């Protein structure tokens, strides 16, 4: 059994399948314990109940089929262990800093920090550059708008005729010359005035100063009247020759470390294995966690559920309060023992849940539960 959304976040139903044949048996209108218990009482003879770890399904199965063996799906049990491991590592996250590589001493400046010499000469501006295209378009619009204004056309009519916004037309109308509109786009007098400082900029760039804001402050002291954005655009093309900076060396995240503990050790690459070994060497609690997780994985893989009691006792003996909560949950629902012993799981029902999503889209949300139930049960 598993639930599915009739209306996501609000209304849910339950699908029941035969775990032996994989065929759907029934579709319930909700996911409450009472509905499930009633259905099981009306269909006696159920021997195995595969479910997730939801309390409603556990209660309904216990009341409706008390003699049946309940099997908690192994994926959900492993998911609960994943959450407990994440909380444990988050509690000891300070040890993740030990994996961050120490700063490597260097005999000289790092190559990535050396600024290459700028181009020998500023590349000539061509009509295809974006700034010049903007400048040409701005001058053409300014001339057209002022020509229509001279003819007595109102701003609204000009905007409709030129397919422009009224605020755009108003801004062009207030500008006496197109250069007033170009000055903030780096296409007018400011960009041209920056060329006066071209030699100085190239010299400072060759000296290693590649910070556009610093260059802008230096140009201000030399009388440059423009904005810092123009300086940034001016030197942008010079940065293409800069070597790529090395990736920042950050410690792993909690989720990355969780993956090291939960994945098969044979699937860890050397760096991940070294990170896991470092964590376990710096923290006795994480070392104990590693052993418990591997033991539990072996029980699940080889279905050695009879070892679960000894495993839970060993966990409770260690200082791992987050993992203790996981153990208490297992003890409240002894179904996990069957899930770690029997070959059954809730995996086959997941495919039917996905198929219900397709059927729901075909019905466009107009059909009631009875039609949805028939479509699910009678589908090939």
Automatic annotation (TrEMBL):
Residues 114-126 have a biased composition (Pro residues). Residues 100-133 are annotated as: Disordered. InterPro entries: HTH_IS21_transposase_type (IPR017894), Transpos_ISL3 (IPR047951), Transposase_DDE (IPR002560). Residues 140-205 form the HTH IS21-type domain. PANTHER family: TRANSPOSASE FOR INSERTION SEQUENCE ELEMENT IS1557 (PTHR33498). This is Transposase. It comes from Nonomuraea mangrovi.
């Amino acid at each position: 059994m598993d639930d599915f959304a009739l209306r996501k976040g609000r209304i849910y139903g339950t699908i029941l399948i035969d775990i032996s044949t994989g065929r759907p048996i029934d579709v319930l209108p909700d996911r409450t314990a009472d509905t499930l218990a009633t259905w099981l009482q009306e269909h006696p003879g159920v021997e195995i109940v595969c479910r997730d770890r939801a309390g409603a399904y556990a209660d309904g199965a216990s009341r409706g089929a008390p003699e049946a063996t309940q099997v908690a799906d192994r994926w959900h049990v492993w998911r609960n262990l994943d959450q407990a491991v994440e909380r444990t590592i988050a509690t000891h996250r300070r040890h993740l800093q030990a994996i961050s590589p120490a700063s490597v001493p260097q005999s000289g400046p790092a190559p990535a920090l050396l600024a290459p010499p700028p181009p020998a000469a500023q590349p000539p501006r061509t009509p295809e550059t974006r700034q010049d295209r903007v400048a040409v378009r701005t001058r053409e619009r300014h001339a057209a708008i002022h020509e229509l204004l001279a003819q007595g056309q109102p701003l609204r009519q000009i905007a409709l005729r030129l397919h422009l916004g009224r605020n755009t037309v108003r801004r062009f109308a207030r500008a006496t010359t197109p250069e007033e509109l170009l000055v903030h786009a780096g296409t007018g007098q400011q960009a041209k005035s920056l060329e006066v400082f071209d030699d100085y900029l190239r010299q400072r760039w060759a000296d290693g100063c590649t910070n556009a804001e610093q260059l802008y402050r230096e140009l201000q002291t030399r009388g440059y009247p423009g904005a810092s954005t123009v300086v940034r655009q001016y030197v942008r093309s010079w940065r293409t020759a800069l070597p790529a900076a090395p990736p920042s060396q950050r410690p792993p995240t909690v989720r990355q470390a969780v993956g090291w503990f939960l994945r098969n050790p044979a699937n860890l690459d050397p760096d991940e294995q070294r990170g896991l070994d470092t964590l376990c060497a710096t923290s006795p609690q994480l070392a104990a966690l590693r052993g418990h997780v591997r033991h539990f994985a072996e029980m699940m893989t080889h279905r050695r559920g009879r070892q679960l009691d000894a495993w839970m006792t060993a966990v409770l003996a260690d200082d791992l309060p987050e993992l203790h909560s996981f153990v208490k949950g297992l003890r409240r629902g002894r179904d996990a023992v069957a899930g770690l012993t029997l070959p059954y799981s809730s995996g086959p029902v997941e495919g039917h849940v996905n198929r219900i999503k397709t059927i729901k889209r075909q019905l466009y949300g107009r059909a009631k539960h009875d039609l949805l139930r028939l479509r699910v049960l009678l589908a090939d």
